[in-house]
Amino acid sequence: MKKNIKFFGIVALSLGLLGSCETVDFGNENVNPNQPSAASTQALLTNALRSMPAKVSEVEGNMWVQYIAQVTYTEESRYATTQRSYDGWYAGALKDLQEIIDLNIANPEAYTGSGSTNNQLAVAKILKAYYFKHLTDSWGMIPFSEALKGVENITPAFDTQEAVYMASFDLIDEALASIETAGALKGDILFSGDMNKWKKFANTLKMVMALRISDVAPATAQTKFKEAMSGALASSADNMHYPYLTEDTNDNPWQDRFETREDYALSDVFVDHLLAHNDPRVASYAELPAAGGNYVGVPYGVANPNVLQANISFIADEVIYDGTTAGGMIFSYAQVAFSMAEAAERGWITDDVATWYYKGIDASMEQWGVSSADATAYKAGAEVVFNSAKAMEQIATQKWVALYLQGAEAWAEWRRLDFPVLSPAPDAESGTGIPVRYGYSANVAALNEANYNAAVAAQGADTQDTKLWWDVK
């Protein structure tokens, strides 16, 4: 009998405990304390910005506009591989930026710890436009309107380059309209949350994009340029350089490339141009040969340059082994000044073309530490003195010199302006000339076949020789 009483007592106690579970707090027993329960938009922004060096210090564009050439392994400068994958951009920086946007729209109160909602959205939109511009300038048609939807759409359609540009202009305009200059922003390793600098970044990007489409959509281009020009970089003090560190955790990519071999030197094409015009920037761009003598470039685009490393000029040590102030320029005042000169030449603005042309040269000289006396002597050179009959050629050529090591921008501007006149690599392994686009990767054709075929049908053959929408000359 006592056993039965004991049994029923235990059952009753158990039922009582079960019935009272609603009022008992056992804590987060199944939550990993080392894993955040919500995404950090601050970390997402930092991660998205850390992708920027892949563009501001890329190799291919610098070789294709013939700033540099390879000494030993010459395949890249001879166009051996012009197919490239953009998958990393969609899975990396662009995905992070889209998540910042989605999270702040869905539940803004939860993410104000990373800064004001408006500023987080604005910077994410600006960077989306920046990265998409680079992608479309490299491949042409790319996924945009159906991209970044995850498993909802793993085979997105390709948008025309025109559509990508117009949508990117909208992203920039939305961002500029919503920026709170007094608002906070965390995770910003580029400008430390200075929203006035983000405004300048956005307006400068808008100016560059406007000129990029000037030959195919002149009315839109002029409107967008004039909207942006007063808010763009206003002096060399505004130059925007990626914040490389000397530590390996965030050092500049040129240093990493030279850790195992010295294979990138200035090309003979570029060095010969600098020397022929007594350009004082050569001392900032390059090192003198280790064996002594004057600056010497490596023969461009040949299978076997047949040169000793001691006899040629490599990229300046300041770029390779430091890079905190050189070699990672995002936007410079020199680029803005030459853009203003071109706008004046096109009749978009009433400013004097020559004034802006010389401002561009002066800004580039200042950027690279050239004295004003040397800059003045350079500007007196017969082929440098402004000639209105050759205005566009001079502006384009000076922009080419000024954009040294800004490979992505330099390659796009050379394709658009067609100056200076460059010859293809003598020992090219593919194509009929200097590449004017990347080919899509094999994965795109295999995994998104229908949309890939539609893009090729609309844009042209998937080769390095097919010109992009804005490249009409």
State the gist of this model:
This protein is mostly helical. It has helices at 2-19, 41-49, 53-56, 60-64, 87-91, 93-106, 117-139, 161-178, 195-212, 218-228, 253-257, 268-276, 282-285, 317-320, 333-345, 353-367, 372-379, 391-402, 407-417, 442-447, 449-459, and strands at 68-70, 142-143, 158-159, 240-241, 264-266, 329-331.
How much strand?
under 5%
Q: Number of helical runs?
A: 21
Q: Could you give a short account of the major beta sheet? A: 2 strands, antiparallel
The tally of strands reads 6
Helices and strands: which structural class?
Answer: mainly alpha
Low-confidence stretches: 1-36
Give the topology string: H per helix, E per strand. HHHHEHHHEEHHHEHEHHHEHHHHHHH
**CATH topology of the domain at 41-78 and 85-249 and 326-425 and 453-459, anyone?**
Serine Threonine Protein Phosphatase 5, Tetratricopeptide repeat
How would you portray this structure in words?
The structure is a single chain. With 473 residues, the chain is mainly alpha-helical. It is 47% helix and 3% strand. Strands 1-5 form a two-stranded antiparallel sheet. Strands 2-3 form a two-stranded antiparallel sheet. A two-stranded antiparallel sheet has the order 4-6. Residues 1-36 have low confidence and may be disordered.
Write the layout of secondary structure elements.
Blueprint: H1 2-19, H2 41-49, H3 53-56, H4 60-64, E1 68-70, H5 87-91, H6 93-106, H7 117-139, E2 142-143, E3 158-159, H8 161-178, H9 195-212, H10 218-228, E4 240-241, H11 253-257, E5 264-266, H12 268-276, H13 282-285, H14 317-320, E6 329-331, H15 333-345, H16 353-367, H17 372-379, H18 391-402, H19 407-417, H20 442-447, H21 449-459
Antiparallel strand pairs: 1-5, 2-3, 4-6
Helix pairs in contact: 2-6, 6-7, 7-8, 7-9, 8-9, 9-10, 9-15, 15-16, 15-18, 16-17, 16-18, 18-19
